[in-house]
Amino acid sequence: MNKYKKLMQKCINLAKKAQGKNIPNPYVGAIVYDEKENKIISCGYHEKYGQAHAEVNAIKNANGNTKGKTIIVNLEPCSHWGKTPPCADLIIKSGFKKAIIATLDLNKQATGGLEKLQNAGIETVLGVLEKEAKDLNKVFFKNTLTKKPYIMLKIASTLDGKIALDNGKSKWITNEKARLYCQKLRSEYQAIMSATGTILADNPKLNVRLKNKKSPIRIIFDPNNKIPLNYNVFNDDVKVILINNSKIDLPKHIEQISFDGSFDNLFKELYKMNIYSIMTEAGSGFNSELIKNNEVDEINHFIAPKIFGGGLDFIKGLNIEEIENSIKLKDVKIKQFEDNFLINGKIKTY
Amino acid sequence: MNKYKKLMQKCINLAKKAQGKNIPNPYVGAIVYDEKENKIISCGYHEKYGQAHAEVNAIKNANGNTKGKTIIVNLEPCSHWGKTPPCADLIIKSGFKKAIIATLDLNKQATGGLEKLQNAGIETVLGVLEKEAKDLNKVFFKNTLTKKPYIMLKIASTLDGKIALDNGKSKWITNEKARLYCQKLRSEYQAIMSATGTILADNPKLNVRLKNKKSPIRIIFDPNNKIPLNYNVFNDDVKVILINNSKIDLPKHIEQISFDGSFDNLFKELYKMNIYSIMTEAGSGFNSELIKNNEVDEINHFIAPKIFGGGLDFIKGLNIEEIENSIKLKDVKIKQFEDNFLINGKIKTY
Question: 309-338 in B: which are within 8 Å (CB) of A?
């Protein structure tokens, strides 16, 4: 089993090579493996949207040496005709004896591959590094299951959960290394979302100031049309989606959509506009609305070892009446940045 | 230098053997070391209040083999006649060539040993593992410099700094492993202090439920005489100091003192009653008073990966107007207890 874990980790690493390149497809890596010789015959991964799946690439690279072999893949091989033929059929046709799979495909259209392999007499093992494989494709699974983008809430607070003093001052709570890591997080999301209060208070750029990294699309939630167009978020060449209920003339790089009061509808609309993953950097009000409406998938909470003893909470007004109904983070991970730290956890898993 | 660090770490480890046994004296370990042979000749530590100092024990254990040797000790050798003769004189008399010292003694009466050694022509190195040595004797230094006990504030909160819901519910925020570690912390302090609100809300026992560990003395801050005597904190055989402004008849294990409104006076009085270190476990009001009055030396903040989005802050009403005036933790350390974690830091260092 340990052997399969190592091979599956290699699949996951292969799959990651496509990060940022194959949106909105899943990240998949595949390995053709010879059990008797304990040897990897070939590897492959899904490189780009619309192109060959990982299994196809790995099998092609095996140059016909697949009969009686084992295939390892981090996502259930597809059983449907999409932009390419079903991988399950190719695996059967190639004469594999065994298939090791990390997780099922949650996409109803694509699933069924495992059953197909089993019906063809191929020995299958499901669930090797399942957690890691699900985490790898968290955006894809969220998209597939809900037709909404994956939402990651970023918070930077004191030990007592404050994001600003009572007088509004907030610069800087976290240290430079933590703020640099926040830039890296921004570069990993397709879009960054903020709201009226934060934009008016800080006039942030919301860009990525790292070499060779693109700034994400900006989604500005300003339903009451309060942010003037000369603010920083509107004034470089990065695409902006402005959520705003007034009709105004806008430069070409700003697209306007309206808000009908439902975050569910808003995120479904953004998904239709091909927005698959969003990092939010906003204040108490917006954070609280997203949490109350159960729209948040993951939290990255930077904490500085300071106490304000008063000020603005990062989330407020949840009116929870029982401890067990509090918002809980799952799969918690901690990172340290000198004396600051980052708590990462999931609110939802798929 | 690395060699001296290793030897100094050994001194610190030796010194720790006296933890809980030599109150209110410092923890000190000493090593007689042969530089030419790169060999430890003998060791010693200060075992009990009123008995021989570490240097005396190490030198005695060297059986006369000290001439031209090096002595390593984590605290400046004393130069005064206390309950025992000055160690500096003994080191000179023993013919040592070199003395490696971690930190000066901050006790005005005891310091001067380093100078004495230097005047006698002994080569000295000061500052090896100074931080660790100061941390080891944080209680002793605080006591010596301020004539007040060392105060450690314990907090258990959510990610948003809440210690209870708006309706007062607080059980349990942290997990079992974190609460077990809290028991260990209790056992390391001479006294545990709590206040009216917490006692009335939770009726805690404030004892140590670990094998072979004694429960600390209880200090109950109840200036308005609100806690009935049938509450748990008063009802085992552990000594209690009750801070209370009414005259009431009390069982023999409860000693009563009054509060004149000054925490400085209160802690000075407790010091006179031989209270040298206190862990506080109280609520928002009491925590805030201690912080406002600058009485806290160290914080142990347990955090559970939950969000209440409202409720009771662990410290409130500090009315800070500038970020740089926030309460800052120094020498921050993190411990993990499954998905809970502990942030430890100093507010003051000596």
Answer: 309-311, 313-323, 326-329, 332, 334, 336
